[in-house]
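Weekly puzzle thread! Below is a chain. First person to post its structure in token form gets bragging rights.
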Amino acid sequence: MHFDGGCIGSSSSVNDFSGYNTATESTCFSTKCPECGDEVFFIRHNGGSVWLDPPLGWPWYKHGCFYPEDKTSEFDGPALVTDKTSLELAEGSNLEIGIVKRTCVEANRNYTDIVLESAELESTEVRVKNNAGFLLGKLCVLDRAKDTIWPFYEPDYLFWLY
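Winning reply:
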């Protein structure tokens, strides 16, 4: 065991996400559509982006000006998620989507404080159990009804809120 955190001269690339971290590349904010002027939410994540119609609630409908060729689902319009199984899991839930902008992993890694950016000038602060530092910069889903948060594209990584 090394009390200073690692071997002298070690060049390990392992990141334990300790401490306070901020994401600068990913973002989520309310704006006007440059095509039609309607209110939309712009989400940039993992090198891509999407424009969504408000509110930022399930199933997160894509804004039509940017996705006119999308196949429509059996739902009201082209959605970010149209998988029927996912919809059944979400029924009765109060889901919010956003980008994790800041994380602060407690020294013992028993909990992580997270700031989820989900709209212009709106941020949600939650505390989750264990080390959830890897959520930094990820598009995540917050389920207040079930007190959980998970990465949108990795729903198996479920974290429980304190």
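Puzzle host: Confirmed. Bonus trivia for everyone else. The two ends are 30 Å apart (CA to CA).
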